[in-house]
Structure formats: C-alpha cells, structure tokens
Amino acid sequence: MTVEAALGLAGLAVMTVLLVAGLTVLTSQLRCTDAAREAARLLARGQPHEAAAVVHRIAPAGASLTVQQRGDAISVQVTARPAGRLLPAVHLDATAYAVAEPGTEAGNAPG
C-alpha cells in the first residue's frame, strides 16, 4: 500500500509541474501577442518610445522587440522565453501588423 501511494503522489507531482509549465507557456504567449499588438498600434500612431515601454511592461521579462517598416506597413515581432531559463527549449514569438496613420512620423517615412 505504501509503495502505491508513493508512486501515486509522484505521478500527481509530475502532472502538477507539467500543468503549471503549460499554463506558464500559455500565459507568456498571450502576453507576447498582446505586447506585439499594442506596440504595432503605437508605432502606427507615431509613438515609438511608448511602443518599447509597453513591450517592456506587458511582455514576459527579457522579451525583445523587432520592428520592420516598408512604406506604411509596420511589422512588429516580440520574442521571449517563458519562465526565464526554466524552460530552455521553449521560444515564444508573436507578430502583429499595422498600417501607419497618415500625418504621423511613421506615416511620412520614405519606403
């Protein structure tokens, strides 16, 4: 009876750790997506400093921001690793697109 209980508790502990890791990855991916969307929106409005700040605030710690602009088209990619270095094989990224608003600095940039 004791061996079965020990194996059952070990299995339950493993399942709990896997569930927490999965939820961490899921919430980190959602945070990357939200950060990319907000950064693209702010860049389209001509607010690059606010875009970098919002990625730092919304995305997981250590996330990086990559911006590409061709004419009025703006592409934003946010990449991160969930839970720091605890899940080294998992790399998250989210991409968002926007079109620069007319009259903004981004909207007047040459292509």
Automatic annotation (TrEMBL):
Keywords: Membrane, Transmembrane, Transmembrane helix. InterPro entries: Rv3655c/TadE. The chain crosses the membrane at residues 6-27. It comes from the Bacteria. NCBIfam families: TadE_Rv3655c. This is Pilus assembly protein TadE. It comes from Amycolatopsis vastitatis.
